[in-house]
Amino acid sequence: MTEHRAGFVTFVGRPNVGKSTLTNALVGEKVAITSSKPQTTRRAIRGVVHGNDGQLIVVDTPGMHRPRTLLGERLNDVVQTTLGEVDVIGFCVPATEKIGPGDRFIAEQLDQYPRAKKIAIVTKIDAAGKTQVAEQLLAVSKLRDWESIIPVSAVDRIQLDTLVSELIALMPESPNLYPDDAVTDETLEQRISELVREAALEGVSDELPHSLAVTIDDIVRREDRDLVEVYANLFVERDSQKGIIIGRGGSRLQDVGARARAAIEPLVGAQVYLSLRVKVAKEWQRDPKQLGRLGF
Ligand SMILES: Nc1nc2c(ncn2[C@@H]2O[C@H](COP(=O)(O)OP(=O)(O)OP(=O)(O)O)[C@@H](O)[C@H]2O)c(=O)[nH]1
């Protein structure tokens, strides 16, 4: 009989390499928001993957980068703490882009976390040719020693089972750490606020993505009908950004609301009424007090 194993894994890599998409694909449910904008991920989220002979707890981290704001520094702190505690670190590079200084920088940092076993994951192989994937596997193998190197596609679900088996094999012997039906330990409020943020991120450009934060005032499950009321605030840093988010005649905000509702409804299993207020919190990314208030 094979031993039962359980432990923590985190995926690291440059922003936008597909870490959140991979987490969601492995967990089988949306626990981390994704977007084509770099640095969408802001907090450690645990997704639980239930395998045959073990359990994986996936800790999603923000992309590592050189901090420019207080928010950036706090995000890096989250990454440091997480990496020191996990059993396995999965270093992600997309098959679609040549390895660059950013990847090398992160690969070098991994020596600072001797506790964790390291594997490399070549992501997005659906979007690359066979030769390109092969070349990337070779390039990754030269970066450092890895327990293994696994090419995957989260979008086309290629090799995800292989990745799960490999990760479980690297975990310590342990009974399950989470109940059999657990998918995440994020609260409903945290998950809803992330879904609202994801909806708001779509279609915005430049520095605005970093300026967005969402808080939830209240979630009310109505007893008289199959309806959940969500009262959310969308924070931006400047008045000009408020205008962008709201759009002409409120058109953009309406779209954001519709997208967010569509994402929240399957999560709560009911129709959703979403109240979305846009507020300005001046320069919140640089202000410790405001960061605290916004949950960082
Ligand atoms: N073709 C393809 N695209 C992918 C795949 N995985 C992720 N992507 C795309 O890559 C982009 C970034 O994905 P994310 O999962 O948000 O990346 P991330 O590394 O978590 O990014 P940060 O949160 O910024 O650190 C999105 O547009 C995804 O749709 C994949 O397997 N195949």
TrEMBL record:
rRNA-binding as UniProt keyword: yes
Principal location: cytoplasm
Era-type G domain location: 5-173
Region (G3): 60-63
Subcellular location: Cytoplasm; Cell membrane
Residues in coiled coil: none
Recorded topology in the membrane: Peripheral membrane protein
Residues that coordinate or bind GTP: 13-20, 60-64, 123-126
Region (G5) residue spans: 152-154
Domain of life: Bacteria
Keywords: Cell membrane, Cytoplasm, GTP-binding, Membrane, Nucleotide-binding, Ribosome biogenesis, RNA-binding, rRNA-binding
Span list, region G2: 39-43
SUPFAM superfamilies: P-loop containing nucleoside triphosphate hydrolases (SSF52540), Prokaryotic type KH domain (KH-domain type II) (SSF54814)
GO molecular function per UniProt: GTP binding; GTPase activity; ribosomal small subunit binding; small ribosomal subunit rRNA binding
Domain KH type-2: 188-282
InterPro entries (UniProt xref): G_ERA_dom (IPR030388), GTP-bd (IPR006073), GTPase_Era-like (IPR005662), KH_dom-like_a/b (IPR015946), KH_dom_type_2 (IPR004044), KH_sf_prok-type (IPR009019), P-loop_NTPase (IPR027417), Small_GTP-bd (IPR005225)
BP term (GO), one: ribosomal small subunit assembly
Cellular-component GO terms for this entry: cytosol; plasma membrane
Quaternary structure and partners: Monomer.
Entry similarity comment: Belongs to the TRAFAC class TrmE-Era-EngA-EngB-Septin-like GTPase superfamily. Era GTPase family.
Physiological role: An essential GTPase that binds both GDP and GTP, with rapid nucleotide exchange. Plays a role in 16S rRNA processing and 30S ribosomal subunit biogenesis and possibly also in cell cycle regulation and energy metabolism.
Stored PANTHER family: GTPASE ERA (PTHR42698), GTPASE ERA, MITOCHONDRIAL (PTHR42698:SF1)
Protein name: GTPase Era
Gene source species: Diaminobutyricimonas aerilata
Gene designation: era
